[in-house]
Amino acid sequence: MEKYFKRKSELELPPPTKRVDNSSSSTKRVDNSSSKQDRVEINLADLPSDPGLRPRIKDYHPNDRDQVRRAYVQRKACQPKEHNFPYKAYGANNRRFNKSWFTRFDWLEYSIAKDAAFCLYCYLFKRDVGEQAGGDTFVTEGFSNWKCPEKLRIHEGGINSSHNQARRMFEDLLKPNQSIQSFHFKQTDQARIEYRTRLNASVDCIRFLLRQGLAFRGHDESEDSSNQGNFLELLRFLADHNEDIKAVTLRNAPENNMMISPAIQKDIVSAAAVETSNAIIMELGDAFFSVLIDESRDISTKEQMAVALRYVDKKGHVVERFLGIEHVTDTTALSLKAAVEDLFCRHGLSLSRLCGQGYDGASNMQGQFNGLKTLIMKENESAYYVHCFAHQLQLALVAVAKNNNKIATFFNFVANVVNIAGGSCKRLDLLKEKQATRVVESVHNGELPSGQGLNQETSLKRSCDTRWSSHYNTMISLIDMFPSIVDVLDAVAEDGATSELRGQAEHLSHFIQSFGFVFNLHLMRYILGVSNELSQALQRKDQDIVNAMKLVRISKERLQIMRENGWSSLLDEVSTFCGINKILVPNMDDIYVARGRSRRYTDGMTNLHFYRVELFYAIIDMQLQELNNRFTESNTELLLCVSCLSPSDFFATFDKQKLIRLAQFYPEDFSSSELMILSDQLDNYIFDVRSSIEFSKLEGICDLAQKMVETKKNVVYPLVYLLVTLALTLPVAIATVERAFSAMKIVKN
Q: Which of 703, 696, 702 is nearest to 649 (CA)?
């Protein structure tokens, strides 16, 4: 029987040991201040197996009871079936414990020490219910009335008896998932899942609002508000279409964990900004990059500096990424440089990898002695500065508009016409109505074709002084809507609210219906049309410096061709337009008389000389001169060398010596030994690409870089590919940072 019982000295509980403090090891017990019992060490391996020698469960410390219960559950009931059960005399009969009862009652235990039966279920889990179900007979005293075995069945009782309740607790403890600890973990896992669902829903809504540039907050976010703002309304829409989200968000979420407070929204937005910046830095890696910088004043009259990076990714694509907006106390070059260094330090960027700078033409940016570009080049002489091509084009257009009195007057009148004809909702509606009526009549008369997408409603485009490409759209609108604009001006001249407005409208109506105005209108449309295409091309993020110079050259050539061969076609177009709109066309051989001046004070020049020489030739020559003066980069040695990389016409501009000279512009990246290796690579490279069909139809350096990556030639000719990436990294325009200023209010908020 040793396998069921130990010696009595081993079965008894050890005497209480001394009380231990919190610094004792994990195998010792500590005092529980909430109980009056002294907590002693309990060795679960030494717990008595004989049910007659066990202490009551309630005699153990409250913090130890669950462990004791689990230990006895794992041991199962004490049923010594091989024991020789002793007889007891009941009158003339002797009776003893019947071991078959173990099979009938799985809860039954036998105590050899007391020759009595006990109930394991009730010992572990029985509540104090007085004398119900035999009281404590089967727990402490033991049952030994062997002549009445039916009391064993009586002890079990009904379905809700104290014994059966204890049995259910015993069975629950046998299931690991039903334990208190497992239940706690289960509850914790469920809470974690619900928390993640709420968080992901809020993050998804915020990502959508950030990408679309929408405001988060609403004017009234109370529960009874009909519109609680974009964030809450989007979250509610998401919950209405997803039952999992609906079950844990908004009203179904804990009030202290709803994940919708403004502070939470700002934290998630900040996290999104950090993750986006980290993704940009990860994509950049150790590649060379250029920095694009511009500064402007925000809505709170604080000076802000927008920063973007330009680099070539691993697939050979030119990438421009907006990195951030930095507040600067002033716009001096030293302050801007300190802000740039601080930004680079936060993102782990190094000035040694900087190979280009792109700014506007402000003195604090491109100053020869103390400008930002000079301060940076003192630390990295290979960080070459390129004046923004889009700014140079705009300066060229502004110079023409300001330096020629006739054109300056023309643009002033255009602005006044737009202000009066489209300055109020009433006049704008009248203009649209007149234009719609004219289009219907023209279609009916066969003057305009009809079909899907044709003859859409148009409006009078308003120009912007800082965006001269918008003036081109204004010219197009004036030509297209000219009769309707005249009708609106005549209506205002008759029914204007004030005499000043009526007089101004009448004067404008007479002026725009003159040959001089129409001539200038069509002339500037041609010139701005050439520069508009150039402006749109320069603002592309993937534009390279070689192609930009090519586009400038094409624009100059188009203007020169227009000067040499465009007079007759322009005069015919203007005359036809005047005939349609009943405007008097002067005889080109007559003496030119300026508007508002007497014929006695003429210069003796003919109309042909004035319009052809004083306007047509003069304006085009002025535009060509400004383009030549502004775009001087094409004459610099660096960009002349870069142009030799162009793959156009089977690499017609390839020049080995100039490409080696280009590498010498970057002494930190090309050592003397690498220059010799580059010389050999260039010989193999040009023979390889000229004999390959894949490289025969490439147009620009961007296409070349991508094709080299696709064909793995960036691995075969690494130094040549390095030259290509350096050329592509040189900035062209700072349109990326200027777009950031358009949304600076959203970015700040």
A: 696
